[in-house]
């Protein structure tokens, strides 16, 4: 049996990061976490390109454009959808989750989902650098792992002669 290694290595890779301006105090912290993780893993600062969009609903379109440009090894989407008193929350949540999934499926480029969907602001804060970590960092790690896995799948697992 041979395994594809789970590698979290960013050297030489280029990332597009799309971040929603809505709830920007939260999303700025997700962005900080995401970029920090990419740099810690060896990415060059100039190889991380950030695009802001109005809200989470717009993330899929920008993510798809970045993916289709051919300039990036992976994309990270960052947003914070916080439940209000109306069904709007559900529409934005399903729009962004379906949209990001479809963009990844249609382009074949790894697109990490760093979008918080929480009942209140407190839950969002705790996941943007608080007691529940920083989901921006987690999304960066997922993107890094998927890029490396896709590359390994292309060339075969280590030691494979075929
Ligand atoms: N966008 C968010 O990113 N988070 C939210 O919590 C949110 N709420 O609650 O409405 C939100 N709405 C805006 C939406 O993403 C679009 O930008 C807007 O509908 C214009 O298309």
């Amino acid at each position: 049996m041979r395994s594809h290694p789970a590698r979290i290595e960013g050297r030489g890779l280029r990332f597009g990061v799309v971040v929603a301006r809505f709830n920007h105090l939260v999303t700025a912290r997700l962005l900080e976490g995401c970029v920090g993780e990419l740099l810690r893993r060896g990415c060059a600062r100039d190889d991380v390109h950030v695009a802001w969009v109005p809200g989470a609903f717009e993330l899929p379109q920008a993510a798809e454009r970045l993916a289709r440009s051919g300039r990036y090894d992976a994309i990270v989407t960052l947003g914070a959808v916080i439940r209000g008193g109306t069904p709007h929350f559900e529409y934005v949540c399903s729009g962004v989750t379906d949209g990001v999934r479809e963009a990844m499926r249609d382009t074949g480029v790894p697109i990490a989902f760093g979008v918080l969907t929480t009942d209140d602001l407190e839950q969002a804060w705790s996941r943007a650098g608080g007691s529940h970590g920083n989901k921006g960092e987690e999304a960066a790690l997922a993107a890094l792992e998927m890029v490396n896995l896709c590359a390994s799948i292309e060339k075969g697992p280590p030691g494979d002669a075929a």
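Residues 79 and 115 are 4 Å apart (CA to CA). The helical segments are 24-40, 59-68, 88-107, 121-126, 135-155.
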